[in-house]
Amino acid sequence: MNTIYKYTIAIAVSLCAATAVAEPADSTAQDVNELKEVVVEGRRVEQIKDGINIRPTKLEKDASFSGWNLLEVMQPPTLIYNPKDESFKDVNNNPVSYYINMEPASKQDVDNLPTSLIISVQILQHPSDPKYAGSASVVNIVAKEYDYGGYTILSASEKFRGGLTRGSVFSKFQRKNWILQFNGYMFAIDKPWSTTDTRTIYNFVENGTSIEIERDSHSMSLENKYLKFDGQIKSTLRFGEEQCNRLIVTLTGSHTDGPKSRSEGMVDYVQNDDKSPTVNISDGMSTAPGLYMNLSFRNKENTKNFIIFGGVSGGFNNNRFGYNSDFTDKLDTEVKERILKPNLGFAYYRDVNNNQFYVDLSNEFTRAIADYTGSTMTKTATTLGKNNVNLNYGRAITDKFRFTLLTRNGLLYYNADDNKTNYRYDYNYALNLQWRTSDKSSTSLTGRIYQDMLSVMFLNPATRKTDELLEVSGNPDITPSVISEISANYSIYPSSKFNISAQLEWERKGNLITADYRYNDGYVLSTYANSGDLNTYRFNIIGTAGLLNRKLSLSFALFNEYYNRSGSTQYHFGSVSGWIFANYMPISGLKFSANISAPAFRSPRDNGYSKSRLWQGWIGVSFTYRNWYFNVQTDPFTKYHDMRSIEFSPHHHSYTFTRDASSRSYVSVSARFSFSYGKKMDMIEEGLNESETITGVR
Question: What are 347-395's pLDDT values in tens digits?
């Protein structure tokens, strides 16, 4: 039950008892403690500035172990939950920024926040508060904090037949204005066999002569292993007037042993019926430390905020690639790479008379040096720099209408070995109009134009041999793609039990970056090139419903897309996809889940398209009891893992058929345990502040 309701009832009962009968204080306290929990539906969802505030029911909290479980169960209005990758986006496809008590948080932080600490969840769209740094969509969780003490969570999961093992430990300790947080994570993959049959046809015209190369290949994966360790220590110090200022220091580290893979197969060139046994191996290892700092100064009125942020990270990578075939010399290349990535920037936010200003400047520099053994290259040095200036301005015209203007201007400079330094300017301009048409609905209109920020992969002119036939290189003279978007959205949430959103969007991507295949000296050379435009039209509908007194929650998404491609490769086609996700909570602590996802029949790929029929469906059950959480999930109805895909361009066509034992029907089992201790306090909400002592409970 919500704490506010609990203590409002307690105060009312105490006053009545004191007026009617002069009982001892202990008797009154005992009567209050025996009151049953009450949920007032009208107060569950309420309008607040820039969004809504949702108070989870006792049933929803009991069926969830963490803040992330709770968001999945609640399915908040105006957010799209994707059960495929377990992520949220808003109705305009913007990523969601997470906050806990108005302080930035990661998805892992939310997933490691016990539900017993959560008071309410705020869903904000383009919030004006400068603390949210101009984010388009915000989830802010209002939660209890500790006067002193903390909690620890241990998690483990195993995916049988999928060869996937995970484990983590999360611990958070707070002493007044100082918070220390540790997060350790382990991820391991050991997949069983998979087989792939591929037919590839390369068509070229060189010097007026038509050249066609057809290749059939078969391979079986004998080894596919990957092991990764991540760690993070984060220290937060609050200081200054009313502890409005923050000093955050974060130390990170990761070590990866993999990927380690080995496959054997057969290649058959149809022209002369030659067949060749092939062997592919890879063996990688990397270590990446990092140190970051964030210093924030904020006034107690929350109308202005100044932040300085910076850090340094790097990496030590060692990768080995091997290939053996009768058609080519044995390939055995080892690459040792050293990477240094410092960054520095500042941000300033201000809220003055319903005008919100935001600006940040940032610089990121990457220096990578690679030494090669067994390759035509011996050493390369690459420099990549990014400078960004972000400017946002928002204004509330009325209580129901506001607009936000967002701009980002970036400069990228790139240099590889002795090549000339390349400069690229990228930009992003967006205008968002929001109108709260009523207390139960809203409308938004967004227009955006931006330019892709090119990566080193697109720019690096060095040629890299990938197998016995294909070589790949970048293009320093490539032109960035320019993307224009216009979208309109309407959302209605007539009650806390139902909401639905509809979106229309048009997107135009000019100067598409695609792979250009050319035949030269017995090898196919693939380089990046600009080719034509792509227009995409989308109509999306999403919704959620709470039934049976919110014991059953349903969410659905339906995506309709139409593509129209011009240029050297022309096509037009439609695509439909979507999913249905359900949670059923028959009793306290027990939850049944199910998901059905439909495929995208066609989607653009490279300078062509791909087809797939990828039906998925899984069911799961979870149980929460005190400080324990158990979950079992399986997909016994899924038969999609024999996948066919088609790629098409004027120069390249392939057909692939894959059997993957690791992707067949699986069973996943996970368990989590938490332990908390010390003295915690509620966040002050509507004038209420509560303290209590806890030991050994979640």
Answer: 998 888 878 888 999 999 999 898 888 766 678 888 888 899 988 888 8
Q: Residue 103 has what pLDDT?
A: 86
Lateral strand order in the sheet of 523-530: 464-465, 470-473, 523-530, 513-520
Determine contact, residues 532/569, Cβ cutoff 8 Å: yes
Q: Whose CA is closest to 528, among 479, 588, 585?
A: 479
From the list 64, 70, 51, 100, the residue with the least C-alpha distance to 499 is 51
Residue matched to tokens 């991540």: 230
The answer for residues whose C-beta is within 8 angstroms of residue 306's C-beta and 6 or more apart is: 296, 297, 298, 346, 347, 348, 349
Residue with tokens 């502890």: 243
Question: Residue 633 carries which side chain, given as an amino acid letter?
Answer: Q
CB count within 10 Å of CB 4 equals 19
Alpha helices in 236-355 (DSSP H): none
pLDDT at 521 over 90: no
**d(Cα 507, Cα 487) in Å, to the nearest integer?**
9
**pLDDT (0 to 100) of residue 473:** 84
Q: What is the pTM of this model?
A: 0.79
Per-residue pLDDT at 255:
96
**Residue 402: is its pLDDT beyond 70?**
yes
**Share in percent of the chain as helix, strand, coil (round to 5):** 10, 65, 25
Burial of 9 from C-beta contacts in 10 A (0-12 / 13-18 / 19+): middle
pLDDT beyond 60 at 37: no
Assign 270 a pLDDT band (cuts: 50, 70, 90).
low
Terminal-to-terminal C-alpha distance of the chain: 16
Rounded Cα distance, 454 and 479, in Å: 9
DSSP β-bridge partners for residue 366: 384
Q: Which of 697, 636, 630, 695 minimizes the C-alpha distance to 669?
A: 630
Q: Is 7 left (phi over 0), alpha (psi -120 to 50) or beta?
A: alpha
Does residue 58 contact residue 1 with C-beta atoms inside 8 Å? Answer: yes
pLDDT tier at 311 (50, 70, 90 boundaries)?
very high
In the block, residue with structure tokens 């290939």: 323
